[in-house]
Amino acid sequence: MSTLTRNRNIEHWDAENIAAWEAGGKDVATRNLIWSVFAEHVGFSIWSIWSVMVLFMPTDKFGIDTAGKFFLVAMPTLVGAILRIPYTVATARFGGRNWTIFSAVLLLIPTLLTLYFINQPGTSYTTFLIVAAFAGFGGGNFASSMTNINAFYPQRLKGWALGLNAGGGNIGVPVIQLVGLLVIATLGNSYASLICAIYLVLIALAGVGAALYMDNLRNQKADLSYMITALKVPQSWAIAFLYIGTFGSFIGYSFAFGQVLQISFKAGGDSAAQAALHAAQIAFIGPLLGSLARPYGGKWADRIGGGRVTFYAFGAMMAAAVLVAVASTIGDSHGGVPTGGVMAALVLGFIALFVLSGIGNGSVTKIIPSVFDAKSKSLDVGPASRAAWAQNTSGALIGFVGAVGALGGVGINLVLRSSYAATASATTAFWVFMAFYVLCALVTWAVFLRRPSLRSVDSAVIAEAEAFVLEAEHSEPSGAASSGTAAAPSASTSARA
Predict the structure, then answer these.
(1) Sign of dihedral through CA atoms 164, 166, 169, 174?
(2) How many domains in the chain?
(3) Which of 45, 137, 270, 495 would give a disulfide with 176, using CB separation of 3.0 to 4.6 Å?
(4) Does residue 48 form part of some domain?
């Protein structure tokens, strides 16, 4: 059946059915993963578009100081974090394909607004804040994409699949920064609107690709009731906290790295245009390597456990943060003018933080389905119902964890803003970040390493989960996936797909 006429709805999907998976299920999952990655990739680019736009906004022309720019790029981070909650349940409510199309088209709003206002230097700061806030639409795409792909893949492959999906999305940050570098290097820092024009084309491609090649899983469930159930499990809050340290670091540094570099280059004697170019030449490297590292964090977590990989990642992030803080301290001792060695240490430390946060992103994401798969073993229901509960609950939690983690990005930009406003330096902020990684490592050890079993849970939570699963079974029509009769996909669905 052709792409244009095939059925886009898969009624019964069970990724754990190995025979059906090998018979065609993995091809369907791969096709959806590819276009999910592309749509999320574009979403991340739009979410981070203002981290590029500020390089095109010299203070003497736009009247926005360093502290103001940090707050400006924090605005889309905050909005994106909030939107991740409703975006999490959207794929189950409307279908993964349908929501991907809608969320892609929605990106036209911030892109068109940015295209117009970036050419208006006399625009008020409040207006710029509002326009930047609309870029938060791109941040919500992560939650819906991850929840959707979580449903497509079996437990044994979730670490790699979720890491690849998230990493491919994360790489949208360095890609738009590379586009910004290309524009600055070839045309100068007065052509920011060209970046927006390029992304209007990519947004259209994401929407069309999702419409033609993605599917809706009609037995997927990730409503708010599942999220509430997930939040009653204590480990869920620990995971959300750790995600602040991993994803929060990645997105926060992604938005701030270019500005930190630009400030440093200006302190070294560059003009505004030179500083913007030099910052753009380096800023994309960290997010790029961090994005590429993320799938491997998930893959290593599949092999040796998410808790171990996360603990090692935070230990290394402490060392990298110390390197950055010491380099910044030495720079301060020279009157804020960084020497070549100081700049090299600063850049290397930041790049290490990006790579390590990417690895931690993948490993923490893997912990989520692992926790609920382990806890589902305590439910006194059938195997298919346990698997469905674990999948739906972990899918719902991914959005909440993503929202909390994104707030870490807001925190990084606000801490940097306060540090620059109070001391005209980022040194204090770097020491704060290092102390936070120490705390994250301790939480990882206490919750996921000191207690090797994840199955223990309060009896009241077990009883509530069992009642929840049984109620869901009774509310479904016969033949639904939780009855244990579903395949991934069934023979007829496989032929259509």
Answers:
(1) negative
(2) 1
(3) 45
(4) yes
